[in-house]
Amino acid sequence: MTKAIVPGTFDPITVGHLDVIERAAKIFDEVVVAVAASPDKNGTGPLFNVQERVELISTATKHFDKVSVKSFDNLLVTFAREENANVLVKGLRAITDFENEFQMAALNWKLASSIETLFIMASPDNMFLSSSAVREIARHGGSVSGLVPEGVEVALRSKFGHG
Ligand code: PNS
Prior knowledge:
The chain has helices spanning 15-27, 50-60, 76-82, 98-111, 131-139, 150-159, and strands at 3-8, 30-36, 67-72, 87-92, 116-121. It is built from six helices and five strands. A five-stranded parallel β-sheet has the order 3-2-1-4-5, sandwiched between helices. The chain is an alpha/beta fold. Residues 7-9, 36, 38, 75-76, 104, 107-108 line the site of 4'-phosphopantetheine (PNS).
């Protein structure tokens, strides 16, 4: 049994994240989506609190029986050890992701060299997609249809009072 962790802030989950989770589930026996509380992210903190993010991801992944969703508020490698998982899977979009992802992978390697970080290339359709862009579009009342799962679209509309 090989268990993989797909970690992230997921504020909110996008179809790009879902694609990575789905592809990881084809490779590994079990996939745990690990939602980082990330209270300090973006200065003001995440748009959705961690319970909301877990719920949105759980709804969007309920048809994958290999996939579970959990939150964590400690080091990712500590969470991975608690889960008895030794693979971290991250999506990689354009070259702009590389530096940050490379740094995180190197630090995680320093902290726990038995835990491997694997990268899955984002599909070409999702190369441009990010949670921050989704938040910005939704904040200004634009349509995020096709960029996020349906439940997230609804949650964004109610968060920003657009309907
Ligand atoms: O969605 P993101 O911003 O790419 O996810 C980043 C995340 C949550 C994976 C990263 O910030 C993280 O692992 N946070 C937990 C704290 C930690 O372990 N930090 C040290 C690794 S650099």
